[in-house]
Write a structure and sequence with these properties.
Shape: globular
Structural class: alpha/beta
Radius of gyration: 23 Å
Largest sheet: 5 strands, antiparallel
Helix content: 25-40%
Distance between the termini: 60 Å
């Protein structure tokens, strides 16, 4: 099968035929013990039973929302939709406001938390969920609801629907960190090509074992650890994201216990391990089989990965296993990556400690350029501009959003591939790509560009006691000349005394000024849970700025 031939249903059937009893997905409980295991054959059996029910409801070629918890029910529903030719749309619970929660409590109605704006945007024909959520989902959406945990019919899907490779395989919503989430139409050809690209770039072998705590609704978790194991013929072990967040050690213990060789996450995941795994706990780990530790999805900090490699060297972790990479949902998942840390100072940056990390050279059948965002002309090596990607992995647009599709995607002559304006800033040097930040997070400050992520990193690298996270944004009111006011919000962790945490509002300006050359206009302490984040944990800085501008200053303090 060529990378862009066929479809995901045909791929799964092929893998089942090759080795039906090969373990595919292993789900771990909160202690790291095996809770549920699915072989290729057992997955296909239960997925085809659910697919038969979807077929009875005539859901072929129609969007179907997957509103399911992290676990076996999600992967079964995803593959059931693929087998019947429906278009799965992975969803997760929306972050509701405290007012909404109070209102639901007053009405004595439990809210499902389903993101209704996304549900309406994708025009879902039905919702697949668990019985505990079914009543609330039905009441809130008015859509047909199919429960996935109430047993399965005896009848199986007779034969998977043979979808064309250019048809949508699923709709992957972006995180929504800088704009409203948008649904990327990922075709079967896109995903098969991207899986092949990942397989070659990672050098995936038959004896590799994946381990992941990443949310299954997110592209890195879904493609990297649900679809990729089927494509590459390996197995994957899953922890719950909440288990990882509560105790990051569980991730490393699972890597050691199940001899994981491929795993990773955003920079913040490695930082959590640096800060919250005690030396005595690390001493008992064997991480020698971890040969590829990918890091992406958000700004990569050299200091974070350096510290991780040093901290867990005694546990057998090899520095060369570090694998900084770059990708985005519009390009299915993966664009480029490389083994090892290579850094360069950001060109024309007046900040200290603002080195960018290389995310490698693009694959042979892809093209990455850096262009002037206004003129659209290509820039020479060493100049920062907007990153543009052209590859068979790039989707053809956003579902139901013609304006943004026209803005970001351009089909090449012949229609073989699409060119994408990523909205990310970076530069090329010696054939390798360096990402400097999101254009939406670039702030004009006294005539120079600074990135919110760099200021936030300077704050958090100082390890301020009692601070859970921080958010940085330009804080001039609308209509006022930009470029002089930058506000920093510190979020209290809810455990350290408030008076102790408030001291950082006085020390942070000096830390930031020394590290980045920026003198903040204001540093405020907000209570735990105040900084808005996306469903994948990214800071929503624009939303944070909106909240700030609406609040009386006495409320902010």
């Amino acid at each position: 099968m060529k990378p862009t031939d066929g479809n995901l249903a045909r791929l799964l059937v092929r893998r089942v035929t090759e080795a039906p009893h090969h373990p595919l997905y292993v789900f771990l409980d909160r202690h790291g013990a095996i809770e549920t295991s699915l072989s290729r054959e057992s997955l296909y059996d239960v997925a085809s039973r659910l697919a038969s029910r979807l077929q009875d409801q005539e859901l072929q070629r129609r969007p179907v929302a997957l509103f399911l918890p992290h676990g076996p029910s999600f992967v079964i529903a995803f593959w059931a939709a693929i087998l019947v030719g429906a278009v799965p749309v992975p969803l997760t619970r929306a972050h509701s406001s405290s007012r909404a929660r109070r209102l639901a409590s007053y009405q004595r109605q439990e809210s499902s938390g389903i993101p209704r704006d996304i549900l309406e945007g994708c025009a879902a024909a039905a919702v697949l969920t668990v019985s505990a959520r079914a009543e609330a989902v039905s009441r809130e959406t008015g859509l047909p609801v199919m429960v996935t945990d109430a047993g399965f019919a005896e009848s199986r899907l007779r034969e998977p629907l043979d979808m064309r490779s250019d048809r949508a395989a699923f709709i992957q919503y972006t995180s929504g960190s800088t704009a409203a989430p948008r649904g990327v139409r990922v075709s079967h050809a896109n995903i098969l090509h991207n899986c092949e690209t990942i397989s070659r770039a990672f050098g995936i072998r038959a004896d590799d074992v994946g381990v992941s705590w990443l949310p299954l609704h997110h592209d890195m978790g879904l493609i990297g650890h649900v679809i990729q194991p089927v494509y590459s013929g390996i197995s994957n072990h899953f922890l719950s994201p909440t288990v990882f967040a509560a105790r990051p050690l569980r991730w490393l213990q699972a890597m050691a216990r199940y001899r994981g060789s491929i795993s990773g996450g955003p920079d913040s995941a490695f930082a959590l391990c640096n800060n919250r795994v005690a030396p005595e706990d690390a001493a008992g780990l064997d991480l020698s089989r971890w040969r590829l530790a990918y890091c992406g999805a958000e700004r990569i900090r050299p200091a974070t990965l350096d510290r991780f490699a040093s901290r867990f060297r005694a546990s057998g972790f090899a520095r060369h296993a570090l694998y900084p990479c770059y990708g985005l949902a519009e390009s299915t998942l993966f664009v480029s990556g490389r083994h090892g840390l290579r850094t360069r100072p950001v060109p024309e940056s007046g900040a200290t400690g603002s080195d960018a990390v290389s995310v490698g050279a693009c694959p042979p059948d892809a093209r990455v350029t850096v262009s002037d965002p206004e003129a659209g002309t290509a820039l020479p090596d060493g100049q920062v501009g907007e990153v543009t990607v052209s590859s068979p992995s790039v989707a053809d647009g956003y579902h139901g959003d013609l304006a943004q599709t026209a803005e970001r995607f351009r089909v090449q002559p012949g229609g073989a591939r699409v060119t994408l304006r990523t909205g990310d800033l970076g530069f090329l040097q010696d054939g390798e790509l360096y990402i400097t930040g999101r254009s939406d997070n670039c702030i004009q400050y006294h005539g120079r560009n600074v990135f919110a992520e760099d200021i936030e990193a300077a704050v958090m690298e100082a390890e301020p006691d009692g601070i859970l996270r921080c958010a940085v944004f330009a804080s001039e009111p609308d209509g006022q000349e930009p470029g002089t006011r930058i506000t920093i919000i510190l979020e209290h962790d809810g455990q350290t005394s408030r008076s102790r945490a408030e001291r950082h509002t006085e020390t942070v300006p000096g830390i930031v000024s020394l590290a980045t050359g920026v003198v903040p206009h204001q540093v405020l302490l907000w209570p735990r849970g105040s900084i808005p984040v996306t469903t994948s944990g990214k800071t929503r800085r624009n939303r944070c700025r909106d909240l700030y501008l609406r609040m009386p200053q006495k409320v902010c303090r």
